[in-house]
Amino acid sequence: MNEYTYPIMFGIIAGTVLRVFMMRTDYRQYPTYLHGKIIHLSLGFIAAALGTIAIPSIMEKEFTAVTFLTLAASQFREVRNMERNTLAEMDSYELVPRGNTYIEGIAVAFESRNYLVIFTSFIVTLCYLAVNMWAALGAAAACFVLSSILMSGSKLGDIVTIEQRELTFDGAGLYVDNIYIMNIGLPERQDEILRYGMGFILTPKSFNIRSTIANLGQRQAILHDVSVTLGVFRDSGTPALVPLIKRDLNDGRIGVFILPQEKDPARAREVIANVPVLENAIQKPGKRSG
Amino acid sequence: MKMEKAILASITTLDNKVQGSAAVFKCETKEEMEAVAANLEAILDGIAHRLSDQLYIIVKH
């Protein structure tokens, strides 16, 4: 036991608890399994330890010790690769895949959470050593609040208006409102689609949003989330029964055609409104520098 | 080999409008054509698209 024992323990515990707090298993079904959780908790613990130990090292004038933070950075980039590979591998077995943009978003989130843990442990230990334990507690609370703000992105409901519209067939062409979705030839498939399908029109609230919802990855994310939450009326070998999103080229609205297992329009609308806006899909064509 | 966007088969009641390398199934009636198209859709894992009332194609997407 020495003067650094309690600050280090405090910093590591604060960082690890933050990682646990940020690990939420929800409809995204990931990570659901115990081993996946253990991997992330262990990495969170390592991140917390790295962030914490930097402070005593500096105080002992061991400045080179800080360079191992760069090691941590490359280590956590590896976490991102691991997540990306695992999810991409599993994606081909999903009835409605997540799509690469969504996967990349999840992988980036996993990496950045570890950096938030390092940052928290660093600040908390610094406050403990420079001021006292109460200051460290305050810093930990502030970091928790900051992390929860940083980790929550915007939702689709914030940027588009969602309206339900009837599905119609014009000959073999399936339409949501006036947006053409696909050609369904067989009458029995058409009946199934009219019975189980639902159509929604998403209207962008501003010009910048047009390109965000036009992004194919963002569209796939909507379909995936709806299918995971409401179930999907399809199986392998029924390519005609596939949820699709097409775009109205005139005004940038998108027509969402879904085939949920339970036909509940209010719930579907709620699910669509809660789809995360993917970081990689956000574009700001209206914003120019200079 | 993974095929993308290929016509796997055509099903038609027309006599001489459809030709090509994909298999062409000539049918007598509309009902027969729909039944053949439904079967081929399931067998080939493709989608049956209707180009006109006399012509279906099975497309692998």
TrEMBL record, chain B:
InterPro entries: YpzH. Pfam families: YIEGIA_cap (PF21835). It comes from the Bacteria. This is Uncharacterized protein. The lineage of its organism: Bacteria, Bacillati, Bacillota, Bacilli, Bacillales.
